[in-house]
Amino acid sequence: MKHIGITIVISLAVVVLISPLLRPKGDGPAPVAAGKAAVTPELRAAVREYRDKMAALYRSAELKYEAGALPLSDVWEAELRSQLAALDDFALDAPAGRDGAVTRAVVTAYFRDEIYRVWKDNLAALDENEQFRITEECCFARIELARRLPEAADNAAFASARAAWEKKRSVENFKKMFDSEIEK
């Protein structure tokens, strides 16, 4: 049964990677509007409140893990959510059409890989649905990363910032990675 799930995930990955090649020219996504919706103080406050809540949940998860009350995979999940919430905050001030999609893909793939590594030796201990979910999330994150990386292929500053973030996942390194992507 496990092999069927993996086969399905691989098949989906192939379809996602090949489907853009089969699309007729000129049938691409709609162009991004030239203007950008105004960021209201209420929106900014709501995004920052969410970012702060996700950061607090991550800190709480770290403490619970250190106390032995939470598995490491839950800590990785909390850190992923915290980083994505921070990215949403950064994107409020980004130019129109620049939302940090490559940075989002890098962060998501990194943490999904970490969660998969935590469970890969113990996948048999999980029920089939959980095995499939963890494997699927990791594969889809890698596919999205493969789709997005060409957007930053010629951006040496992004590659450098990404390496620095992967070495030390600090807010400063994360912001540098995002900034280097949108300043392309």
Short description:
This protein is mainly α. The protein has helices spanning 2-22, 41-66, 72-91, 101-120, 128-148, 156-167, 171-182. The protein is 72% helix and 0% strand.
Rg for CA atoms: 18 Å
Helix fraction? Answer: over 70%
Question: What is the distance, rounded to the nearest whole angstrom, between the alpha carbons of the first and last residues?
Answer: 45 Å
> Helical region count?
7
The major pleated sheet works out as:
none
Derived from helix and strand composition plus strand pairing, the structural class reads mainly alpha
Report the average pLDDT across residues. 82
Beta-strand residue percentage: under 5%
Pick out the low-confidence regions: 21-35
SSE topology string: HHHHHHH
Tell me the number of strands. 0
Shape: globular
